[in-house]
C-alpha cells in the first residue's frame, strides 16, 4: 500500500485516443500536482507464420515524422472487447492476419511517469494472411515484412532506435525460442 493517494482530479483535455488529467496527490506530509495521460490500453501482436517469420510493419508516425518498424498493434478503443478480441481485430485490420493459436506474451506499463497506459502483447502462431482492412491513412500505407528469427535478433541488437512495444514483444518471443 502506498503512502500517497489521489485527493482530486480534473480532466483538462479529451481526445479520441487519450485524456489528460491534473491530479492532486496527497501524502502525510505534502500535496502536489501531476499531469497524467489516461489511456484505455493497447494491444500488440507478435504474428508468426508457418515459416517461423515475424510480421514487422513499416508505418508512418507523425510524432516521429518517419516510417517506424513496429509489430501489429492498436488501442483498446471498444468497450465491448477484451484485449484478445482487440488483438485479433488489429491483426486482421493491419495485415489481414488470422490465427487459431493465441497466447499471452507480456503486459507492461508504457511509461508510468506520465501515463496509465497498459499494453498487452499476444503471440499469434501459424498466421494466415488474407486481405487487410486498414483504417486511416497511416494503415493504408503500411508495408509488411516477414522477418526470420536471425533478422529479428539483428534488429534488436543494432544500435538503432527500436519501437518499445515491438522490442518487448519480440524479446518475449525470442525468449520462447531458446
Attribute tags:
178 residues, alpha+beta, Nucleoside Triphosphate Pyrophosphohydrolase, 2 domains, 4-stranded mixed beta sheet, 3-stranded antiparallel beta sheet
What does this structure look like?
It is a single chain. The protein is of the alpha+beta class. The protein has two domains: 4-38, no CATH class; 42-177, Alpha-Beta Complex (Nucleoside Triphosphate Pyrophosphohydrolase), CATH 3.90.79. The protein is 22% helix and 44% strand. The protein contains four helices and twelve strands. It has helices at 83-95, 137-140, 149-157, 164-177, and strands at 4-14, 19-27, 31-38, 42-47, 53-61, 66-70, 73-75, 97-98, 101-109, 118-125, 128-129, 143-148. A four-stranded mixed sheet has the order 7-4-10-9, sandwiched between helices. A hairpin with an 8-residue loop joins strand 9 (101-109) and strand 10. The longest helix is centred in the last third of the chain and has 14 residues, at 164-177.
**Low-confidence residue ranges:** none
Total of domains: 2
CATH structural architecture of the largest domain = Alpha-Beta Complex
Q: State the fourth-level CATH superfamily of the largest domain.
A: Nucleoside Triphosphate Pyrophosphohydrolase
Give the overall form.
Answer: elongated
Fold-level CATH name of the largest domain: Nucleoside Triphosphate Pyrophosphohydrolase
Spatial sequence of strands, sheet with the most strands: 7-4-10-9
Strand content range: 35-45%
Q: What portion of residues is helical? A: 10-25%
Helix-and-strand structural type: alpha+beta
Radius of gyration of CA atoms, rounded to a whole number: 18 Å
* Total count of helical runs of at least 4 residues: 4
Main sheet summary: 4 strands, mixed
Question: What order do the SSEs take from the amino end to the carboxyl end, as H and E?
Answer: EEEEEEEHEEEEHEHH
What top-tier CATH class of the largest domain fits best? Alpha Beta
The mean pLDDT is: 95
Q: Could you tell me how far the N terminus lies from the C terminus, measured between alpha carbons in angstroms?
A: 37 Å
Amino acid at each position: 500500500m502506498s503512502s500517497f493517494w489521489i485527493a482530486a482530479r480534473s480532466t483538462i483535455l479529451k481526445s479520441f485516443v487519450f485524456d489528460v488529467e491534473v491530479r492532486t496527490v496527497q501524502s502525510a506530509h505534502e500535496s502536489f500536482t501531476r499531469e497524467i495521460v489516461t489511456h484505455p490500453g493497447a494491444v500488440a501482436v507478435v504474428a508468426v507464420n508457418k515459416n517461423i517469420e515475424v510480421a514487422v510493419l513499416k508505418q508512418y508516425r507523425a510524432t516521429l515524422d518517419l516510417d517506424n518498424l513496429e509489430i501489429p498493434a492498436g488501442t483498446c478503443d471498444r468497450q465491448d472487447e477484451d484485449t484478445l478480441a482487440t488483438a485479433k481485430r488489429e491483426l486482421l485490420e493491419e495485415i489481414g492476419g488470422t490465427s487459431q493459436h493465441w497466447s499471452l506474451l507480456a503486459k507492461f506499463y508504457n511509461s508510468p511517469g506520465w501515463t496509465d497506459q497498459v499494453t498487452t502483447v499476444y503471440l499469434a502462431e501459424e498466421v494466415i494472411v488474407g486481405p487487410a482492412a486498414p483504417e486511416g491513412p497511416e494503415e493504408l500505407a503500411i508495408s509488411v515484412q516477414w522477418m526470420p528469427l536471425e533478422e529479428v535478433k539483428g534488429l534488436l541488437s543494432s544500435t538503432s532506435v527500436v519501437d518499445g512495444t515491438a522490442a518487448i514483444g519480440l524479446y518475449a518471443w525470442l525468449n520462447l525460442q531458446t
